[in-house]
Amino acid sequence: MIDRRRMSLSVLLITVLSGWFDVGGRIMAEPPSGNAAKASFSSDEALYHEIYRPQFHFTARENWHNDPNGLVWYKGEYHLFFQHNPRGIQWGNMTWGHAVSTDLVHWKQLDHAIYPDEHGTIFSGSAVVDHHNTAGFRTGDEAPIVAVFTYAGRFAKPPKPFTQGIAYSNDRGRTWHKYEGNPVVDNLAPNNRDPKVFWHEPSKRWIMVLYLGQRGKFTILHSNNLKQWKRVSDVEFPNGHECPELFELPVDGNPNDTRWVFWQGDGRHLIGRFDGTRFTPESEVLRGEWGKNCYAGQTWNDVPDGRRIFIAWMAGGRYPGMRFNQQMTFPRRFTLRTTDDGLRLFAYPVREIEGLYRRKHKWSDQPLSPGEDPLEGLQGNLWDIDFVVEPRDARTVDLDIRGNRLRYDVQQQTLSGFGKTAPVAATGGKIHLRVLVDRTSIEVFANEGRIVMSFCYVPDLTNRPLKLSVTGGAAQIEKLEIRALRSIWSE
Ligand code: FRU
């Protein structure tokens, strides 16, 4: 993780000497916790309106969260569990928080789902719907939802190795029971963690991908019942770290021609084949994120229309004075497309965002000369911006958001912002940018989502909301559509 690189040698030394260690850039300095007391959360509705509270990105009602966990759809609800500290604004006491949504946009936070116990605190993992009752947990009319998570044994009393456990719910995720036979996967390697489980229909088995706790090392396991697991193959991923994902996608929408994507924490991924046992990469390592704040993402199991939808932790954002800490990306749909460079993964905001559209401002086929700004006078702070521009004589095309600049460099064919730069090639002399602006985050999808940049920021509220300008010479705006968005908390 980003912060990890910044950790000085002395901090590392202290960390090691005092028996602490670092996962995902946080220093895990929490005392062993055993059974945490159930924590309740505040019911103060006003808190969703604080000045830096994202208005269409998921945040925990209060306190710290990091990775999305247990993403699964069941009977009309998208479940979003998350790494949560129910008792503090910083990382610690890892518990699975829980929220549901019927549209991937409006979220309702429910009671926390899975608490630490004698095996450890509850680190990241996934969830499945056990339609065939393979684990035998079913008691009533609902199919059980089974969560598969990591026991961070390091934080148990007395400390234990990291293992994997399961818990189930027979009431659509409202109440949870841990399996009495936990853990279901014994320690395979120090700090092994982050099981992603899914049903593999051709082999009629559950598959788990697991991080082995050491950079570059992942493994794949099989199970018939979610309780007994067998390690069947390993995956080497250069410098890969935490939160593996493995999913299938049609190539250019063709269901008869599919590939598998092996994804890990920072968004770098491999495209290849998976035969139910072994993943065989066919690509080099590809980048899935070019910005600063996107980590530990996961995709939903069982989305009814077959879309592969992803959400990630916008790791590292800062929100001074707020009772919440951290936010998620807006959910994105993944597709695999043939490009001149070979197959590439594209990510684009899910269409459900349209439910938030308010006013639309539209410009088309008009030149933009230096000194002009078509966005002058625009009010607001939540936006979905979609534009196609032909740079022509311009040297740069600049979009300023509350004083933060995204700059397209025409000659370099790069897009830069917040100290990060990504290659954005013009096609037919044009570039296409889609930009989502929330109060404290900006997500850029360039060239239909081939390049993604995710940023958190603290807005300068005295600054202009949006400004679009060029330097050097005139550009031609082919299309510029700006939609003001409704807050998900406004109803
Ligand atoms: C990734 C991660 C995971 C771990 C969890 C702990 O951000 O470090 O590897 O399970 O966060 O909160």
Outline, from the CA principal axes? globular
Find the CATH topology of the largest domain: Tachylectin-2, Chain A
Give the proportion of residues in helices. Answer: under 10%
Multimerization status: single chain
CA(first)-CA(last) distance: 37 Å
CATH class of the largest domain: Mainly Beta
CATH superfamily membership of the largest domain, which one? Glycosyl hydrolase domain, family 43
Individual helix count: 2
Helix and strand content put the structural class at mainly beta
Q: Could you say what the CATH architecture of the largest domain is?
A: 5 Propeller
Q: How large a portion of the residues is in β-strands, by DSSP E?
A: over 45%
Mean pLDDT: 92
Number of strands: 34
